[in-house]
Amino acid sequence: MTFAPLGRRRVPVTARRAVGAYVVVAVADDGPAPEAGQFYMLAAVERWGGGTDERPFLPRAFSVARRHDDGTLDFVLEDVGPGTERLCELGEGDEVWLLGPLGRGFERPRQARRPILVGGGVGIAPLMIWQDVLGASALVLLGFRDAAHAEGAALLRGGRVATDDGSVGHRGLVTELLAFELGCDARAEVYACGPPPMLEAVRALCAEHDVPAQLALESGMACGFGACFGCVVPTKDGYVRLCVDGPVLDAATLDRVEAA
Ligand SMILES: Cc1cc2nc3c(=O)[nH]c(=O)nc-3n(C[C@H](O)[C@H](O)[C@H](O)COP(=O)(O)OP(=O)(O)OC[C@H]3O[C@@H](n4cnc5c(N)ncnc54)[C@H](O)[C@@H]3O)c2cc1C
Ligand code: FES
């Protein structure tokens, strides 16, 4: 596990590009190289607040999507509310507060197991850097709601795509693609990130096929480093703080994936 330096860093945005329904924001960072599956807490330096008095928002959690050789970090954002809307507006020359890398990331596949990466929506983000690490050995299965979101598949190499509306690739759920793969060969280890119902379906499928799975979960995070207990999720061994014990959890430790 890579530990974050103490304190948040003020770093410049070096690029912004729209990829279908998503925005990729790149920042120049001189912190330690993150591990795949770790995350950062991000806040815009300017106009980070709501209402006439600009009351500051808490920072928001984002998976690191890619790290370039010069230390540049890419984040893939989906605009779902005020914080992500503000971060999606950022462009070259703007600045962000960045804290990280935080949490526990993915672990390498057990011996003789083929990695299968399963992403849903913006859950593709941590799978990008994990594919960079694993290389061509990883099979990539991606699910999106429609064609605009499915453009995000271009951020990974060679992914098979499913869309809810059938506009791109397989019509249906990405878990149907996974069920087919596990039916052909169960010597796999699955790495998944996406909405809770998708992760619960992945967990149940992997349990049925006796396949190990590592799930990158989400929950509301206020601090990101274990202080507020706002991010707890239930496991078979009791509640854990997702920001320090996760966000990647072994599926075998969960009875089920609860809605965030
Ligand atoms: C470890 C981790 C990694 C993440 N990685 C990414 C990423 O790579 N890209 C990305 O776009 N988003 C990511 N998220 C989610 C992101 O943090 C939230 O979308 C963001 O905090 C929403 O803030 P907002 O102010 O825009 O919207 P809000 O108004 O705070 O929320 C908008 C909607 O999203 C829901 N929501 C808010 N936060 C979360 C959350 N953490 N989990 C589930 N639902 C939530 C709210 O209930 C509400 O329905 C990640 C979250 C975690 C915990
Ligand atoms: S986000 Fe504060 S304890 Fe996890």
DSSP helix fraction = 10-25%
Number of helices: 6
The small-molecule ligands in this entry are: flavin-adenine dinucleotide, FE2/S2 (inorganic) cluster
Termini gap: 24 Å
Structural class, judged by helices and strands? alpha/beta
The backbone outline, from C-alpha atoms, is globular
Report the mean per-residue pLDDT as an integer.
Answer: 95
Oligomer: single chain
In the sheet with the most strands, the strands line up as: 6-3-9-1-2-8-7
Q: What can be said about the biggest beta sheet?
A: 7 strands, antiparallel
Strand content: 25-35%
Tally of DSSP β-strands: 18
Q: List the uncertain runs.
A: none
Order of helices and strands: EEEEEEEEHEEHEHEEHEHEEEHE
* Radius of gyration, taken over Cα atoms and rounded to an integer in Å: 18 Å
Characterization of the model:
This protein is globular. It has helices at 82-89, 125-134, 147-150, 174-184, 196-209, 242-245, and strands at residues 9-19, 22-28, 39-44, 49-50, 55-56, 60-63, 66-67, 72-77, 95-102, 114-120, 139-144, 160-163, 170-171, 188-193, 213-216, 232-235, 238-241, 248-250. By secondary structure, it is an alpha/beta fold. The longest helix has 14 residues, at 196-209. The model has no long low-confidence stretch (mean pLDDT 95). The protein has six helices and 18 strands. A hairpin with a 2-residue loop joins strand 1 and strand 2. It is 20% helix and 34% strand. It has a seven-stranded antiparallel sheet. The protein binds flavin-adenine dinucleotide and FE2/S2 (inorganic) cluster. Flavin-adenine dinucleotide is lined by residues 39, 60-63, 76-78, 80-84, 122, 125, 218-221, 247, 260.
